[in-house]
């Protein structure tokens, strides 16, 4: 397998998809809902996913593709080469803001993340990494992260997790919000993973994410020394919805130990 | 008074200050804390405020200037012309992220907001308005806002206000977070006011803001039909720290009535 060529191929596909998304703002965008009234999807999410899948299946027929909109494969193992794609991560931002969304792509081989890409389309910010070769923000190498105490940490957490919910006790999370330097919420797991990887936040967490939300970002985060896991501290299976935290290593341990009590 | 000239003057000052801030990233930035460990200030906040104040006092000696860093005037009335300046709104983002902060400026005459400016420095996004003449995002006129039901609203609220705090009962705010389409938190009141004004969010609120955080944004928001008030529904005094909400009109009424119970 010529991995360098696959890396170039993936980058060029993502840039072309980004261009298509920017052009889409001059067309009619139709918004539907999926699992719930706040789970939005548009014709553009679908068209961009189909664009990726048509190209990848033609050029790499033996690879499998898992995409948010369901045009790809359903998998029950990570054997072989699997592409995890979110054509528009942060669809609510895409619809309401026309910005603050990203294309997220991760390429895994037998369960090991080889390539990760996050493209913040409207900022034209491209985060990417190759396993063992470091992570980049545009053309700039991202430095390894140094640890930060909780009192100086900026944490990506949505307010919803600080309210009673079915996944986690919210009281210890109230303590987390009150103990850190500040919280942010951007509405795109991919962008928040990119922010942790580039040192703009110190941790990001959510109680329910899908493989395509995090697969690309996890490769990037890993190359700068951030730790990704479920809320029980296990590696993600990438086979279904899971809890998720990415953080600088000491901080991840501290948060899991003191602020996470799963229901 | 030649108001058109003052508008041009203010715009050019803000652009020059933005340039100085961008250049500052190539110098040493020293970070101090103010009222609390999470209330950050840097030498750049101070230098930029002094840059504005030196220019404005020289060119408009009869105007008063109220700035976050305290180099300007202390006021106990809004008589005459008052400039409300936050040289870097979102200092924590400036320090941690090198982005997502803004210069915020409002020019008031006898308590009436005449000009409002918000400059998202790193995106190079400039929001501005003149009373009675509409609001602009860069060179594009911002449309008047249409109302949005709470169930479809994206609301800017920091997770801290959904935890027990000294200003407001947090339980009704938990209900707000669970009833809206989604919440975001960007860590800059000016940027969040700009987002409401440009339709990217439907409301933004905080329990403790200073005049310089909101004075510029309120002029912009008003020109697109958004309502700004304290949490009791009163106009802001702009003479000290206050509670604050800006929203599309029906939404502001709904939130105040059903989700705000001040302590």
**CATH class term of the largest domain in chain A:** Alpha Beta
Which chains make the largest contact? Answer: A-B, 31 and 31 residues
Spatial strand order of the main sheet of chain A: 3-4-5-6-7-8-9
Helix and strand composition category of chain A? alpha+beta
What's the main sheet of chain A like?
7 strands, mixed
Output mean pLDDT of chain A.
Answer: 97
SSE series of chain A: HEEHEEHEEEEEEHEHEHEEH
Shape, per Cα inertia axes of chain A:
globular
Share of helical residues of chain A:
25-40%
Low-confidence stretches of chain A: none
Q: Please give the count of helices of chain A.
A: 7
Binding site for Mg(2+) (chains A, B): 68, 86, 88-89, 213
GO molecular function, one term (chains A, B): inositol monophosphate 1-phosphatase activity
Cofactor (chains A, B): Mg(2+)
Catalytic activity (chains A, B): a myo-inositol phosphate + H2O = myo-inositol + phosphate
Index terms:
homodimer, about 260 residues, alpha+beta, Fructose-1,6-Bisphosphatase, Chain A, domain 1, D-Maltodextrin-Binding Protein, domain 2, about 25% strand, metal ion binding (chains A, B), metal-binding (chains A, B), Inositol_monophosphatase-like (chains A, B), hydrolase (chains A, B), Inositol_monoP_metal-BS (chains A, B)
């Amino acid at each position: 397998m010529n991995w360098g060529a696959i890396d170039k191929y993936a980058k060029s596909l993502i840039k072309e998809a980004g261009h298509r998304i920017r052009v889409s703002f001059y067309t009619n965008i139709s918004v539907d809902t999926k699992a719930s009234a706040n789970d939005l999807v548009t014709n553009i999410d679908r068209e961009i996913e189909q664009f990726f899948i048509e190209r990848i299946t033609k050029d790499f027929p033996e690879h499998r593709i898992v995409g948010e909109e369901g045009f790809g494969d359903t998998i029950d193992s990570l054997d072989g080469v699997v592409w995890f794609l979110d054509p528009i991560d942060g669809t609510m931002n895409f619809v309401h803001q026309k910005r603050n969304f990203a294309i997220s792509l991760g390429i895994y081989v037998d369960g090991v993340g080889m390539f990760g890409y996050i493209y913040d389309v409207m900022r034209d910010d491209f985060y990417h990494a190759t396993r063992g070769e470091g992570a980049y923000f545009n053309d700039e190498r991202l430095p390894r992260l140094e640890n930060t105490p909780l009192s100086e940490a900026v944490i990506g957490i949505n307010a919803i997790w600080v309210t009673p919910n079915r996944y986690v006790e919210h009281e210890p999370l109230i303590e987390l919000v009150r103990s850190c330097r500040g919280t942010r919420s951007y509405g795109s797991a991919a962008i928040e993973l990119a922010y942790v990887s580039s040192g703009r936040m110190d941790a990001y967490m959510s109680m329910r994410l899908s493989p395509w939300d995090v697969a690309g970002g996890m490769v990037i985060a890993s190359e700068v020394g951030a730790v990704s896991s479920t809320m029980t501290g296990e590696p993600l299976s990438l086979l279904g919805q899971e809890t998720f935290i990415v953080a600088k290593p000491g901080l991840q341990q501290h948060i899991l130990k003191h602020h996470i009590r799963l229901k």
